[in-house]
Design brief:
- The structure is a single chain.
- With about 190 residues, this protein is of the alpha/beta class.
- It is about 40% helix and about 20% strand.
- The chain is built from six helices and seven strands.
- The protein has a seven-stranded parallel beta sheet with strand order 4-3-2-1-5-6-7.
- Helix 5 links the parallel strand 6 (about 130-135) and strand 7.
- Helix 1 (about 15-30) runs parallel beside helix 2.
- It is globular.
Length: about 190
């Protein structure tokens, strides 16, 4: 059975070309390793960049989008598997359930919300899937500092930092995914 990588990322490109380059490279890595992309089914931003890279290399995609975002995120009708949901929560849950590991590329509030819910599920021992933060150009550094602050302030256990891994570039993302997908997940 094909293993799947859920990618949470921005529906915008960001203002540094290194973000789109990382998204493109991640798409290529997914195909090179015969994995399937699970994503938000939009053609816009980094989300569309990852999907286009996967398709260009002949890979497969599974997209999930809520009805209310079909226009704004320009739903990708060329996705092999496309599910339209009623709401954002259903979207996130379907993306997660249909994946074996999660990668967080740069993004905005939606990407952060997706990451924190998946992290919380891990903290509650609801899953053991690998979560990888792609800290491209130190984009997620402030969020990592906030997590450390919550730990230091007594609002999170020290082991919270063990529930995700941080990669600085595509090579590290690939190495972490390969390692993660060689183990069984709940």
């Amino acid at each position: 059975m094909t293993q799947s990588i859920c990618v949470f990322c921005g529906a915008r490109m960001g203002n540094d070309p290194i973000f789109s380059e990382a998204a493109k490279e991640l798409g290529e890595i997914i195909v090179k390793n015969s994995w399937r992309l699970v994503y938000g089914a939009g053609r816009s931003g980094l989300m569309g960049t990852v999907a286009r890279a996967v398709k260009k290399e002949g890979g497969t995609t599974f997209g999930v989008i809520p009805e209310h975002l079909i226009e704004s995120e320009k739903v990708d009708q060329d996705t092999e598997g496309l599910i339209i949901t009623d709401n954002m929560h259903s979207r996130k849950k379907l993306m997660f359930v249909n994946s074996d590991a999660v990668v967080l590329l740069p993004g905005g509030a939606g990407s952060m919300e997706e990451f924190f819910e998946i992290l919380t599920w891990s903290q509650l021992n609801l899953h053991k899937k690998s979560i990888i933060i792609a800290n491209i150009a130190d984009y997620w550094h402030p969020m990592l500092n906030l997590i450390d602050h919550a730990i230091r302030s007594g609002f999170a256990n020290k082991n919270l930092r063990n529930r995700f891994q941080v990669a600085k570039d595509s090579n590290q993302i690939e190495a972490l995914l390969r390692s993660a997908l060689n183990t069984a997940h709940v």
